[in-house]
Amino acid sequence: MGKFGNAVLLGLLLIAPVAGPLQAGGAAGSMAPAADGAPWWIWPLILFVVTFVMGVVAVLAGVGGGVLFVPIISGFFPFHLDFVRATGLLVALSGALAAGPGLLKTRLASLRLALPVALIASTCAIVGAMIGLALPTHVVQICLGTTILGICVLMFVAKKSTIPDVPQADTLSRTLKIYGVYREESTGQIIEWKIHRTPLGLCLFTIIGVMAGMFGLGAGWANVPVLNLVMGAPLKTSVATSKFLLSITDTSAAWIYMNRGCVIPLMVVPSLVGIMLGSFVGVRLLRISKPTIIRWMVILVLAFAGFKAVHKGITSINSVEQPHHAMSEASALVDHL
Fold this sequence. Notes:
single chain; mainly alpha; two-stranded antiparallel ribbon; disordered C terminus
């Protein structure tokens, strides 16, 4: 996995003594099946297998791992939503940190385009994380399911333009000097690009940032359409800049979840390793796979997970809900002891 991957895993293992009591507190209310006699390692093992498959599918379908991780894991695993969202942000963050330097070096990702967007999106991601942790779990669950169903519709109807026609850059983009050039390796052509509708795009990124922090999805599913279709950046530049953006926006939101005690190494480590190994396999399978079939598979899986999240939130409205913050669960455990 390289030096960076080893450093990430080492850091996560170092915080295990701090997160251990939190995991124990969460286990009482969120990992009840483990108390029925199953060994403690069974859920991390299953999580590793599922995220490995998820990593393969994410590459083949061209979506971020966080978009698949949060709805699927929250819908089918006995983990509390706060823990799932925190892990989902770290899953998206790890892929972005691994890809970011290379994308900047090849000039596919534009630092001039990323900086103003990142400033807005990362600030709003912090606000979104705070909102998500403050709201009742069933409300977040319903909103998450609705958002996932919206993503399915977006994946179904969205069109992408390789090099959009931007007749003239707007005043704000000229002031910020947002433009660039890159070499299209497939044709050898030098592509010069500029953007327009910058104020509208920046306003949309406030919404994207809040949603990214609130649901822990990462925001690649929304970044690319806004950068490409609204602001007029080339498709490759939009994809690369979106990937780089995740390393900034997800870091901001992840700190909020970590500060609230929602990062559990027993969830994070197998998830990161599974996603990374699955991504390596997915890259190899990409040459022989049929993207259309994979795309429909992802849409169907997300639609099912979205409906399940909405149903789970609705059915839990009238139930008596335990304190949903990891810190509250840990405090209750300490008081009991």
